[in-house]
Each structure stands twice: as C-alpha cells, then as structure tokens.
Amino acid sequence: MRIVKLKQDRLNSFLEAVSTDSELWGPVKKGADKHRFKIVDNPAEFDLDYTRTILPPKKIFLPPRFNMFKAMPTAYEEETMDPTKKILFGVHPCDIHGILIMDQFYTQTYNDPYYIRSRENTIILGHSCWPDEHCLCHSTGTDVANEGYDLFFTALNDEYLVWIGSSKGDDLVRIVPELFNEDLSDRDIQNYIRWREDRSKAFKAEINFKAMPDFMELKYRDAVWENLSHACLACGSCSNVCPTCTCYNVNDKPRLSENASDIARCWDACTLESYSEVAGGENFRESRSERLKLYYTHKLQAFISKYGKPACVGCGRCAATCPVGINVKTVAGALDGEEVDAFWSRYATEVTK
Ligand code: SF4
Ligand code: SF4
Fold first, then answer.
1. Which CATH class is domain 2-60+78-201?
2. What DSSP string describes 119-137?
3. Which of 7, 9, 46, 130 has an alpha carbon 20 to 30 Å from 332's alpha carbon atom?
4. Where are the domains of the chain?
5. Closest ligand 1 atom, CA of 321?
6. What is the pLDDT of residues 295-341, one digit of tens each?
7. What is the model's pTM?
8. Do residues 95 and 315 make contact, with C-beta atoms less than 8 angstroms apart?
9. What is the three-class DSSP state of 2?
10. Using CA positions, which residue lies closest to atom 2 of ligand 1?
11. Rounded distance, CA 269 to CA 294, Å?
12. 127 within ligand 2 shell (Cβ under 6 A)
C-alpha cells in the first residue's frame, strides 16, 4: 500500500478534479448538530468536523425504498437500478467496516444484484475521525480500516496522509499527480504515530464484546429483556441507523390503470411488531422483549458464530438515536451485570415497583 501527502487546502481541487463524471457524496451539516451523507455540487459544502451521520452509507447502496420490478399478469419488467458512478467521501473507519460486513452479507451466500451493482459503481474515500462519548469502535476493533477503501485521508496538522487502498484509488491520484507529494519524512511518521496513540486514549466507552456470546446464552431468560421492553417504543430507529442491519421487506404497489404492480423493496426492522407477522395474522414475536432479544442476538452472538466478529462496528448511532436509551452499550452493560443509568432502566424500576 502506497502513502502520499496532500496539503489540506488542496483537497477540494482534488475532489473537483476526480468527480467530473461521478456524483460526489459526503458529510454535510443538517440542523445545528447533525450530519448526513448528501450529494454536493461543490466539495466546499462538506463539513468534515463530524462524528457520525444520522444514517450510515448503506442508504447510498440500497435506498430505504426502491422499485425492483414491474409485475404484469404474465410477465415482469426489471427496473434499471441507478448505475450512476459515485464517489463517497469522508467515510469513517467504523462505516468502512460496516460496508465490509454488507459486502460479506450480500455476496457470500446469495449475490444481491442491487447491492453489487451499486457497490461496484461507488468509490470509497475514507477520512480520519476523533471519538465522542458514544463511539465503541475501539472495543469492536473497527477504529482503523486496513481495507475497504480506495483512498483514506488522515488529517495531520495542515496535511493529509493519504493511503492508497486500490487501483481505483491510484487512478484518482494519477489524475492530478501535481497535487500530491510522495516524500514522507520521519517527522510525518512520528506525527502519525503520536496521533494514533492520542486517539486511542480518547475513547471513553467500552464493551467486552468477547464475553457477549456467552452472556447472551446465559442471560437468555434474564429479567433485563422484560425491563427493556417496558420502555421500547418499537419504532425501528435502532435498525434503520445501524450500518450492519440488512433486513428488508417487499411490497406490492398496484398501478390500477395498467393492470400491473410495482414490486418495491424497503428497509425493515426486527424491532417492529409487523416484522414477524405472517399471513393469517399470526405473529411469532409479538412481545417487544422477544424482538429486542432477536436484535441483540444478531449483534452480539449469532453473527460472531457465523462470521467471527460482532455485527456491531461501534458507530454509536443506536446510542445517539434511541429515545429511551436502549443501545448496544447499555444492553451489553446490563448483561455484564452493571448498574446501567438509562431511561429504560429507571422506567423499569418504576413500573415494576
Ligand atoms: S430500542 Fe429504541 S430505537 Fe429501537 S425500537 Fe426500541 S425505542 Fe426504538
Ligand atoms: S449496534 Fe449501535 S453502535 Fe453497533 S453498529 Fe449498530 S448502530 Fe452502531
């Protein structure tokens, strides 16, 4: 892997030069203190001083809702999925790991043509970050990305150290080679090592992920699941914001005047009541505690036994999003026997008095 340098004040010239035939996506401020990935005309619109976007990059590969095909009485027509070339800039290491998990999921057992087409047309440009109180990527080992990107920009003083992670990334650098400097000095290397050490020390939240598969097994009937369910609103937000949640549903939308239907694919969430409902109205997971158990079994146990790592990349979105404080940190803490200070634990104390 080659590493080059780029002056930070040349970043926008680089992004403009490489995105002439692609959509340029990246983090843009939304409201006072939130961010989202958005297409921009001008890279000056990016705000790189962010910790996490509301939704992860999965929305760019598989939008929350899209038509797969049009069904007619005796035939169907495939919708052409957007083949637009995209450059996705400013992706943090946890989200790069989220993309790697989706790559595995959507290509290992069954190839998902919608995901694959979109993914193959997207160049990933990663960017360094600094943790806040919700970031758990140090515990999941996803605080650094060694693969899954085409270029990765680490901001140090007024420069970037730019890791070239693929031949596509190398091609981008070759479009404007005059912007880059190939000579890394000992000082650059020392600065980077110091930055890595300081960043490691800045993490505040931790989870013992190694112990979680055992704890999930041992505490499958623990009162914690009932306690969580008293407060859970079954809103599905924790699944929507999670970069590793992949469940979807398929709906028919009739086009009455044409004797045809649009067959649409839309994000689903195992925390929603309708998720486990089948024809005839039977629901296999009617209770919120069973649905939360399913969600956390996937995150903390089942995925580990199949893929050797948790289905959590420590992005902290569930912690920043759930209105009642149910998130991977507080649930893992409760399973680990901690006194958890969250709305759901205080509420459970009230309702079970
Ligand atoms: S755990 Fe929180 S975010 Fe998830 S469904 Fe329940 S209330 Fe909504
Ligand atoms: S479980 Fe929470 S912290 Fe982990 S990847 Fe999903 S949203 Fe991020």
1. alpha beta
2. HHTEEEEEE-----TT--H
3. 130
4. 2-60+78-201, 209-351
5. 3
6. 999 999 999 888 889 999 999 999 999 999 999 999 999 999 999 99
7. 0.95
8. yes
9. strand
10. 322
11. 11
12. no
